[in-house]
Amino acid sequence: MFDLSGRAALVTGAGQNAGAGIARALAARGAAVAVNDLVPERAEAVSGGITASGGTAVPVAFDVTDLDAVREGVARARAELGRHVDILVHNAGIPADFGQGPFRTLAPGRWRGPVEINLFGAMNCVSAVVDDMCEAGWGRIVQISSGAARTGSDQGLSLYGAAKSGVEGFIRHLSQELAPSGVTANTLALGLQTNAAGDATEVFAAKIPTRRLGTPEDVGAAVVYLASPEASWMTGQTLNLNGGSVTT
Question: What is the CATH number of the domain that holds 203?
């Protein structure tokens, strides 16, 4: 079950945290993984770790907001892995300027960053891989999102939340277009992760029913399911992975 042998995956933003956990989990189930990150050294470190553990991985550093760079990176991944990308996990979502703060205080020049990486980054990556998936009659697209897409807060997340809301809508519509071709598209909306809490881990964890924050391994396991052959009837959905902090 959940065997991904013979499949090739591209994971964006995979040089650290949840992205690294996703790349490792997919490789552990047999997928050959193209590890993307904006920082080449991070992509190389995660790729090297997978290879050292007996998996197959290659580093492909590029900026997801640059369509030409995305296309070049996907072509490089295909050449090095020996097949087209079957599984796309768009995890990259935090720009250099996160755009955090009360909206009234944010200059218009700061509005675009979260939207470029989350929404247009996803569109760039999907555009670069989706034709091969449809022609093959099999593909998996997994978008990493956040509870901030559907739950308002007063923590200065209006730009980030808007960007994640937008990409969730994109994935829902995309799923309907691609379903007849054997390609699924789903979103995994994450709750607070260990890397985001800093010194306040225990404080935040106490507010979550499971009494802990999410880990890269939690995220990787959920993505493995969505990427698997067994998830062929799961498409167009947003699944919450948040320790029960928000229920639906």
Answer: 3.40.50.720
